[in-house]
């Protein structure tokens, strides 16, 4: 069993809800911002405001980590960063491979925040012969034919899929068969994976549709827009939002 799987099992045994796990990176980002400002301690109210949650929810989330703060003082920022980082598995480096180096893949390869958060991009792969051999952010794009070899040789733990939708499932199948159990999917398609494989899907179009829905509500009130304008379905709900939720 890998260290990542051990942590997942330990979280389950301690009863840490998945919703709490999903908020931990948000708290960590807020704490890093406090560190950058030289803040040594922070109250639950201040940290909650920085993270965009209510303070009661934050205190409950952090209690799952065994961190309760000190009355009248709050939380020690540096120690809380360590606690959350340890819980998320960020006290060690995670090796990442990015598959698909179109515009999105290139942007991800050039993102400077990976290294400072415990992630090391060790491979860029693509099937397009015209980009094989190109240098992107100090790395050479390699052919997708070497996928399994690269995963094994470099100890890849997480794969980012930024391919066109038509290729994503095939790529995912190969990645899983090679032993990777964590996938971040940017392709506009739902991937099918076996039990024990974690997939996080990032779909910018859905997020934009949800924001558009809220903009409509703010401008047009609870009853939405005129259906004749094409912005709302027959039941008065924004059609884009319905599609996003049902997806």
TrEMBL record:
Residues 26-65 bind DNA. InterPro entries: CoA-bd (IPR003781), NAD(P)-bd_dom_sf (IPR036291), Rex_actinobacterial-type (IPR058236), Rex_DNA-bd_C_dom (IPR009718), Tscrpt_rep_Rex (IPR022876), WH-like_DNA-bd_sf (IPR036388), WH_DNA-bd_sf (IPR036390). It comes from the Bacteria. It is found in: Cytoplasm. Keywords: Cytoplasm, DNA-binding, NAD, Repressor, Transcription, Transcription regulation. NAD(+) binds at residues 100-105. GO terms for molecular function: DNA binding; DNA-binding transcription factor activity. Its main location: cytoplasm. GO terms for biological process: negative regulation of DNA-templated transcription; response to redox state. GO terms for cellular component: cytoplasm. Residues 89-190 form the CoA-binding domain. The keyword Cytoplasm applies. SUPFAM superfamilies: NAD(P)-binding Rossmann-fold domains, Winged helix' DNA-binding domain. Belongs to the transcriptional regulatory Rex family. Modulates transcription in response to changes in cellular NADH/NAD(+) redox state. HAMAP family: Rex. Homodimer. This is Redox-sensing transcriptional repressor Rex. It comes from Actinomadura namibiensis.
